[in-house]
Amino acid sequence: MSQYDSIHRRSLADPIGFWGEAAAEIDWFKPWDKVLDDSRAPFYRWFVGGELNTCYNALDRHVARGRADQAALIYDSPVTGTIQTFTYREMLDQVSRFAGVLQRLGVSKGDRVVIYMPMVPQAVVAMLACARLGAIHSVVFGGFAPHELSTRINDAGPKVVVSASCGIEVAKVLPYKPLLDAALELATHKPTACVILQRPQVQAPLIPGRDHDWDELMAAASPVDCVPVAATDPLYILYTSGTTGQPKGIVRDNGGSSVATKWTMQHFYTIQPGETMWAASDVGWQVGHSYIAYGPMLHGATATLYEGKPVGTPDAGAFWRVINQHRIPVLFTAPTAFRAIKREDPNGLLIRKYDLSHFRALFLAGERCDPDTLQWAEEHLKVPVIDHWWQTETGWAIAGIPLGIERLPVKYGSTSKPMPGWNVQVLGADRQPVATGQEGALVMKLPMPPGAFTTLWNAEKRCRSAYYEENPGFYTTGDAGFIDEDGYIFVMGRVDDVINVAGHRLSTGAMEEVLASHPDVAECAVIGVTDPMKGELPLGFIVLKSGVTRSEEEIVQEVIALVRERIGPVAAFKTSVVVKRLPKTRSGKILRGTMHKIADSAEYKVPATIDDPAILDEIEDALKTVGYARKD
Ligand code: COA
Ligand code: AMP
Q: What gap in Å lies between CA 301 and CA 45, rounded to an integer?
């Protein structure tokens, strides 16, 4: 039996022994009474009775044990021309003083803090400072518009919001403060204070009494110590897209997430304490939480915070420059970043400009990775390239090749084998396991391992119905796929209204809600269409109300602007067409899947239940006007 097989088997046969041992890598103020509590299944809880502090594990213990002068975080920002290294001692100083700032603003254990920041080190400082106090942070990605931010503020109910004067997208300086002000205007929940980091590019006007300057508060702050929290207490809420406009507040606990994230650093990503890991993601996404803010520092390694893009800052060699300059052995990013690089530097000429001899592995996740992109990366980097499968809900890889355990063979198109702790199965429409190689719903047998989400914030009922009711005893991932005869998992796509645009998870349902709110729109549908760079792009269909005589082009431009205004630029909603009617089943269900296939010029069967097959030709004609459905 291979090393991987024996470890995976043991993790399922003896989860208590397996994770109990992994938990010894974390410092506990009080040991747990029980490794796994199944008394409220499907809401399993790990390390019940245990007390710890995640910030203590990420910073204090390393300073105390000889890593004070080692780099904890490297901030590399080509957009501002800055490279800054924070040692563990400096990081601890910043974090414990910012915890003091938050405490003076009234934040204590269990309170929420919303962080709406670009990729600056202060975002990580704020996250760790919350963890230090036992407060619960909720980071909102900067590409979301005020409406989305306000929805999250209302749901999380933060005492304090931490933000910055601006973000920088390549050469564009984007003021954040007007977005925050607009969100707070819209929100029904009002935080008592905002802390604003004034960046040199933009000075944000502060509202006296409510807004505070980061630097001024820090200059006067006293450091505070770590507050012990229960292993089961929430560390953070991270909102992710569901099938409606109401995002899901994924809750992750302190104990389980510390144990699992730390475990993956070496066993999955091969990182040793003292080495540098680079997750080229954003602190607003799950990858940024697990592998920028927490994982590397929990492990005594160095985290990398990159404020730039794979291309354009300044060119498609940016990643190689960073890897070379900071001696980074492992990079984790989304396939879309590699598609962008490949498009600009198809022969990998910029790769050869840099000495990458220390670089050992590339990990890709966040969306389906096309074999071409993976093979291109293998060919030019000459290191293992590992596609691994993840969700915000799971917090860490469900499947992949754990290079720290064993270099299993790669199968192109597959996300490889389940990780320890994950019992992945495929169920058919009858909720029974399908035959090997047959496609169905990808599900995980409960319990999931530590680090998986524990519930949805303020929405336990929604959590049950979204994830646990359809297949009792299992967690339903929302992904479809199959497992082959060697146990390799193939993730083929979502079964719900979630799409993946440039590695960003977005809800077509939420976009439909925006389109439907336009006064001239009677009906609408949004689908994801295949895009060679971003993986998928949203595309809208609108049916106008009868009697509307305004220019269709004008209305299309208005709905596009509306999505940008309500959801944000990250939605990349740039294409919409007007159609006379939408294809539906006789029971009235919109045939989004069929429209998707027509747009992609894929083979499709006219559904037997379709109301009027002639509509499909109308859809095809409309799609052709915007460059899709071209069979040639
Ligand atoms: N703040 C404000 N606006 C933001 C933003 C942020 N943090 N992040 C993105 N945006 C804006 C962009 O400026 C762009 O706006 P535009 O329509 O005015 O051009 C829009 O949102 C879409 O951004 P993005 O998806 O980043 O597309 P892009 O065309 O600018 O860049 C890639 C394309 C492939 C280079 C980029 O998407 C990328 O690096 N993707 C990797 C994704 C990733 O790491 N995902 C995390 C999962 S691991
Ligand atoms: P997020 O919650 O943003 O991480 O998005 C999770 C979703 O992204 C999953 O449910 C999948 O649909 C998709 N996804 C993530 N990683 C992969 C992968 N390696 N292969 C295919 N799809 C993936």
A: 28
Tell if the pTM clears 0.90, that is, is over it.
Answer: yes
Question: Measured between alpha carbons, how far apart are the two ends of the chain, in Å?
Answer: 49
CA-only gyration radius of the chain, Å? 24
Q: Whose Cα sits closest to atom 9 in ligand 1?
A: 143
Spatial distance between the Cα atoms of 6 and 244, rounded to a whole number of angstroms: 41
Each residue of 363-389: pLDDT tens digit? 999 999 999 999 999 999 999 999 999
Cβ neighbours, 10 Å, residue 581: 15
* Model pLDDT, residue 606: 87
* Residue range 5-18, pLDDT digits in tens: 999 999 999 999 99
Give how far Cα 160 sits from Cα of 106, 237, 267, 301, Å.
9, 15, 37, 30
Say how far apart CA 31 and CA 523 lie, in whole Å: 56
Query: Which domains are assigned to the chain?
Result: 3-308+388-481 (3.40.50.12780), 502-624 (3.30.300.30)
- List pLDDT tens digits, range 343-368: 999 999 999 999 999 999 999 999 99
Helices marked H in 163-317 — which ranges? 177-186, 214-219, 254-267, 286-288, 295-298
Give the nearest ligand 1 atom to 169 CA: 13
SS3 349: coil
288 lines ligand 1 (CB under 6 A): no
The tens digit of pLDDT for each residue in 414-437 reads 999 999 999 999 999 999 999 999
For range 257-277, the mean pLDDT: 98
191, 184 contact by CB (below 8 A): yes
**What's 338's DSSP letter?**
H
Judged by its nearest atom, the ligand closest to the C-alpha of residue 392 is 2
Q: Which atom of ligand 2 is nearest to the CA of 491?
A: 21
> Which ligand is closest to the CA of 503, given by its number?
1
CB-count exposure of residue 59 (10 Å: 0-12, 13-18, 19+): buried
Tell whether the model's pLDDT for residue 632 goes beyond 80: no
pLDDT at position 585: 87
* Residues in CB range of 394: below 8 A, 6 or more apart: 422, 448, 451, 452, 453
Burial (CB count within 10 angstroms: exposed 0-12, middle 13-18, buried 19+), residue 630: exposed
Cβ atoms of residues 578 and 542 within 8 Å: yes
Question: What is the total residue count of the chain?
Answer: 632
Helix (H) / strand (E) containing 53: none
Structure tokens at 48: 């019940």
The CA 328 to ligand 1 mean position distance, Å, reads 23
Mutate to test the pocket of ligand 1, among 148, 169, 286, 415 (most ligand atoms within 8 A of CB): 169
What value, to the nearest 5°, has the Cα angle with vertex 492 and ends 576 and 332?
Answer: 90
Confidence of residue 133 (pLDDT cuts 50, 70, 90): very high
Ligand 2 pocket mutation, candidates 333, 369, 374, 389, criterion most atoms within 8 A of CB: 389
**What are the pLDDT digits (tens) for 294-326?**
999 999 999 999 999 999 999 999 999 999 999
Tell me the pLDDT tens digit for each residue of 386-405. Answer: 999 999 999 999 999 999 99
